[in-house]
Amino acid sequence: MTTLYALLVGINRYAAPDVPDLRGCVRDVESVHAYLTRTAGGARLCVKTLHDGQATRDAVVEAIRTHLGQATSEDTVLFWFSGHGSSAPCPQWAWFAEPTERLQTLVCADSRTRTVPDLWDKELSVLLDEVARHCAHTAVVLDSCHSDGATRESPSDETSVRSVPEAAPRGLASLIPELIRATADPDRPEHVAVAACRSTEQAREATLDGAIRGVFSWSLLRALDRLGPLATYRELVLAARTEVEQRVPGQTPQLRPAASALAGHAFLSPRPGSSGTAIRMRFLRGDWEIDAGAVHGLPPDHGLRVGVRGGPPAQEAAVTTVQAHRSLVMPVSGWAPARDRQYSMVVTHVPMPRRTVSVSGRDTEAVRRLLLDLHTCGPGGGPSPHIRDVAPGSAADLRAEADSTGMVRVADDRSHRLAEVRAEEAVATLEHIARWSLLSTLTNPRSELTGAVRIEVVTADTPVAPRTGGRLLEPAGGALTLSYVRDGSGWRAPEVFIRLHNTSRRPLFCVLLDLTPRFRVHAELFAGDFIAPQARGAALAGRRIRAHLPDDLSPAPGVRVRDKLVLLVAEQQFSAEPFLLPALGGRVTPERGALTSRGLLERLGDRVVLRDLGDAEPDGAAYDWTTETVTLLTEVPG
Predict the structure, then answer these.
(1) Which ranges in 560-622 belong to alpha helices (H)?
(2) CA–CA separation, 255 vs 294, rounded Å?
(3) DSSP string for 253-297
(4) Which of 96, 577, 92, 527 is nearest to 291 (CA)?
(5) Which of 70, 99, 381, 446 is the least buried, fewest Cβ under 10 Å from its Cβ?
(6) Among 348, 438, 426, residue whose Cα is nearest residue 384
(7) What are 566-583's pLDDT values in tens digits?
């Protein structure tokens, strides 16, 4: 039988004289316990609670190791913390863990008494990753200030916040041993984390349903009751965020890793869920909005529409304002969506598709069917929002040639073959490649942020990426070349570190996308975070990155493959989810290569219709954004 192991920590009363008491934290975790008891279903429930003085730092660490550590490969784990959070300067030796240059902390019941420190977010993370190594699924919920990364503040008239002054610096001797070991572990498993707010924000508690509660805990439990047990973390966080933002300002719930399959996992389910992504529509402060904007490539043209994924054609909304990180929409055709729901959306109409395709071939009937498909593949039966056909022989971005065996070969405008698929898969393949190629050229020519953040590729000569220095690799001929090395065991793939250097004097939000040879787009290298002014962030938290050939391509002298890294930079946080694409099905020719890290899995799922890409329009854009690209050429020396 599957067991759910839960550790619920709620702290209202603190021992340190300079840490004020709270009022709603114990009630938070009591409500969580009641929810788990009510919805456990067929799972065995094993809950340990630590309230107030029970929740010392040592007790919390020990309970994670021993209570949650009992979980096996069939079990699920939940750690829920409600209490004070804080922050601390990040020591230089741990720079790769925090591009904001600040760590987040959990303030335990005895923190800041005598020599007892706070519990660092990185300590909590590696403790839970150790648990995740042996169980089916691990989740953490943090209702405290600065909690995106880990972590309520002094009372006001209507709400109080869960934070205290920053923590004191700490030396290596005070850290848990798991943290020291984890820095060089490239195969560390992941857990999913749901946080009450961004690392720079405060989590509030207020009177809700007649009692003092954490606004986020109350909102998340409300979302769980409303959306049901099959709701994913992504759906739950967006629903809770809507509740929170309607009630208090300056608190934005967060999900990490947001661009991972874990975000599509059903809450506390021991089995993986759907990892598909989509644009989300919700009602907030009088307006309907979607979480995609100019930085995601939405064009500013009038006529852009989105529709409910899998819904009837009447459930559409017209995009009225495209901003940098989001867009305002208005339901059309008499559709009245429920304001307490969130909707998964796809683009249903783009005024002028940006990629053309020329179809030719020997089998006239196959060509005719393909041409028909091009005009009926959009949601609701309309034209494709991503491609349009032109006359055979005309100039086109893509070419599709059908043969008498029912196969279609897809090539670019230089006749370089990209894929070979069955005729019934051709339209989906053309749309997928069109979105991938448009993203590879995404740019904002009017940005004042151009050049503000640089991609630095450094040879991996140390176990962990250096904060400064190292041997920088420079591009030549439009690409940065990484070469295999031959040793006694054969060809060895090159390893590098990737740093993102913010040269500006303001914090900037960055996402690093990897556009792979299988026409996959993922954000696993740097899924999204602010980088402090004049500071650096590290891809994969400073771990080594192997640039290697695709698995089905053996190293041989002369083989060369390509990857493209696209760095998106903005003044405001935005979602990476609308960019993501799974690997393309069918046979793909090996002229392009794969950049992965050791231990990464192909975690993205269903194909999603996203958007037609275009330049940003300055009018109505609330925040500036820009892009930088680097082409990586991986070769086996001839």
Answers:
(1) none
(2) 22
(3) -EEETTTSGGGGSBTT-SS-------EEEEEETTEEEES--GGGT
(4) 577
(5) 381
(6) 348
(7) 999 998 888 887 788 888
